[in-house]
Amino acid sequence: MIRHPFGTLALACIALAAATACAQSRPEPTTAAPAAARVAPGVPSMAALVDPQRARVGQAIADAERGTFDAAAYADIARHPLYGWVEFAAARRDIDTVDAARMRALLARYDGQAAGTALRALWLAALSRREDWPGFLADWRDGIDDLTLRCAHLHARAAQGRTDAAWTQDAQTLWREADVALPGVCDMPMQRLAAQGGLDDAMRWARFDAALAQGRSGVMRAAAVGLPASEAALAQDYARWLDAPRGVPTQWPRTERSRRVASEALARAAKANPDAIEAQLPAVAQALGFNEAERGRVLYEVALWTVASYGPRSAQRLAAVPAASYDVRLHEWRAREAMARSDWPAALRAIRMMGSEQRADSRWTYFEARLAEKAGDRAGSQRLYRQAALKPEFHGFLAADRLDTTYALCPWQPVDPPALRAQVARDPALVRALGLHLLNRDGWAEREWKDALGRMDDVQRRIAVEAAQANGWWDRAVFGLGKTPAGEARPDELRLYHLRFPLHHDATIRRAAAAHRIDPAWVAAEIRAESVFDPNARSSANAQGLMQLIPTTGMATARNLGLPWPGPDALFDPDFNITLGTAHLRELLDRYGGLPYHAIAGYNAGPAPLKRWQAQRPGMDPDFWIETISYKETRDYVARVLAFSVLYDWRLDGSARRVSDRMVGRLDGERVRFACPAGTAAP
Question: pLDDT confidence of 181, banded at 50, 70, 90?
Answer without folding.
Answer: confident
